[in-house]
Amino acid sequence: MSGSASIDDLLTFEEERPRREEQGGRGRLGGLLRLLLGVAAVVVVVIVGLRAVGLQVSLLILITGVLALFVVRRIVAALAPGPLPPPPRRPVTRADDGTWNWTAQDALRRAIDGWATPLEWSNTRPERFTGVILPRLVELADERLRLRHGVTRESDPARARTLLGERLWLFLETSPRRTPSPRDLAAIVAELENI
Fold this sequence. Notes:
The chain has 195 residues and is an all-alpha fold. It has nine helices and no strands. It has helices at 7-11, 16-23, 25-52, 59-79, 107-124, 126-149, 157-164, 166-173, 182-193. The chain starts with 6 loop residues before the first helix and ends with a helix.
């Protein structure tokens, strides 16, 4: 071995498979011998077990059955697919035309989709807005109140109502009969941000 080795040389290894192929007939003979020894061992154990419970089975049938099981096991192992490769990770990058590549699902995109999809559904089903979107807005309002002012709507309703303002308080407390328009939602979100 020479005194200098590259990092690739140090980090690579030879697999066992090429060595077995170099051995040629000895590898196949050894595999066959191991198979026969395994079959013999299983047959002896099965015979002892059957004799212990008082049963007798033809030795030829027993050997044939165990050998068939070993062969099927080897065939299944040879045909088994390897592990799946990890999915490629594509970073979110800025394209030449100034747009962003959103093919990679990052946390911001998932958060946006977490709001966009239910909002789209609520256009055709108003009950979806009161069941999905409104509870999220209520949680956001409570969290903003808690973080900025140390209160929640439940802990100090009078102060929370003052901080939220009458319009936002009524919106969060009463379920709207129809889905608010995008303009109304933008105003509500702006009021939430000003808490």
